[in-house]
Amino acid sequence: MSKSVFRLNADSLFLATQRLERDGLIEGEWKPSENNRRAKYYVLTQKGRKRLNNETREWGRQVAAIGRILETS
Question: What is the pTM of this model?
Answer without folding.
Answer: 0.78
